[in-house]
Design goal:
Layout: H1 3-26, H2 41-44, H3 96-101, E1 126-131, E2 136-142, E3 150-155, E4 158-163, E5 169-175, E6 180-187, E7 192-198, E8 206-213, E9 218-224, E10 234-235, E11 251-255, E12 264-271, E13 280-289, E14 298-306, E15 312-320, E16 330-333, E17 340-342
Antiparallel strand pairs: 1-2, 2-5, 3-4, 3-6, 6-7, 8-12, 8-14, 9-10, 9-13, 11-12, 13-16, 13-17, 14-15
């Protein structure tokens, strides 16, 4: 037998003898030759004379945005604050929880999944514009999270306030001012929606819009073909059906919710020029009733007039209302609008 083999055999025998002696001294069976007790990586790095730490220590966790989780210390919740652990217990096989709680320094912990995106709450605002008879557009808004909420509707320079119902819906008929009509619904927080519609028959109608803010008391009046005040052919928002004539006549529609903060009101007069059965002129005027809300104040309005081609003219109106002792009177403003010239078809 060679010297190297003799040295190896002698060393192995000496190691076995020492192991058996150590086990007999401490009441622990010696491991069989050429075997190594299963020890967790954390135990392998722990000094033989130092008991396992049982005092709880805080764990530092890095968020998913800054990188993988990194756990520096873990307190075993099952440990009891007793005296030092016997040395013999340090060489027992580790439990599953101990192995899981003490990964090796080189082992990469799995990255936790990112938080799922919060599902939408169905608060999207949508709008739709559908052309109808008389160059009118059915404008509808759906806003499930804006029930009974003030909103503002814009259409080619015209603007008025509205309020959704309890389900966040709005349905309103709007006289179109352009063949390619654009409608915008806007809430006070910035949410809103846009809808468009093509109104091919709009050239057959003449329209004038008057709009203002607050309780200014404005009115638009049309006296068709020489009609006098209160007679058939005098058209305004307060006219009754009894004032209608057998001839083609116009109508006034008021839009806007007055019982809201900062109300925006619009009145639109429409005459079906393409269906006129007589020729003549329509005298247009703006009136303002002196009320307790506007007396002694300056009020303003804006006029939008569309006649014939796709062209809208605008004009600003500023008016000083008399003092409150004139409540109930009317201010009549002529020559602010061009009279409509109608030719029979």
């Amino acid at each position: 037998m060679s010297r190297l083999r003799l040295i190896g055999l002698t060393g192995g025998t000496l190691a076995c003898a020492l192991g058996i002696g150590y086990g007999m001294q401490h009441g622990q069976p010696a491991p069989p030759p050429h075997s190594t007790p299963a020890v967790s990586p954390a135990e392998a790095n722990m000094p033989a004379t130092e008991p396992r730490q049982t005092d709880p220590a805080p764990a530092r966790v890095r968020t998913a945005e800054s990188g993988p989780l990194e756990i520096e210390k873990i307190a075993l919740t099952s440990a009891e604050a007793a005296g030092p652990t016997p040395v013999s217990e340090m060489h027992q096989h580790p439990t599953v929880s101990e192995v899981a709680a003490a990964p090796s320094a080189n082992a990469a912990l799995p990255t936790p999944p990112e938080d799922p995106e919060m599902p939408g709450l169905g608060c999207e605002v949508t709008a739709q514009a559908v052309p109808g008879p008389m160059a009118m557009v059915d404008f509808s808004v759906s806003a499930p999270c804006f029930g009974n909420t003030r909103m503002v509707v814009h259409h080619n320079g015209m603007i008025f306030s509205a309020v959704t119902d309890s389900e966040g819906s709005l349905n309103v008929k709007i006289p179109a001012l352009a063949e390619r009509a654009v409608f915008i619904a806007a809430f006070d927080n910035g949410d809103g929606a846009v809808a468009t519609a093509r109104v091919p028959g709009i050239a057959e109608f003449d329209r004038v819009a008057l709009q203002w803010q607050g309780n200014a008391g404005f009115q638009i009046h049309a006296r068709e073909f020489g009609a006098s005040y209160g007679a058939p052919g005098h058209v305004w928002s307060g006219a009754t059906a009894a004032g209608a004539t057998d001839h083609a006549s116009g109508s006034v529609l008021r839009l806007g919710e007055a019982d809201v903060l900062s109300p925006l009101i619009a009145e639109i007069y429409t005459f079906p020029a393409g269906a006129a059965d007589r020729s003549g002129a329509i005298a247009l005027s703006i009136e303002a009733e002196v009320t307790a809300d506007n007396c002694g104040r300056d009020i303003s309005a804006q006029l939008l007039q569309r006649q014939g081609a796709n062209r809208i003219t605008t004009r600003e109106l500023d008016l000083s209302v008399p003092d409150c002792d004139a409540v109930g009177d009317f201010l009549v403003l002529n020559n602010l609008l061009d009279d409509l010239k109608i030719a029979a078809k």
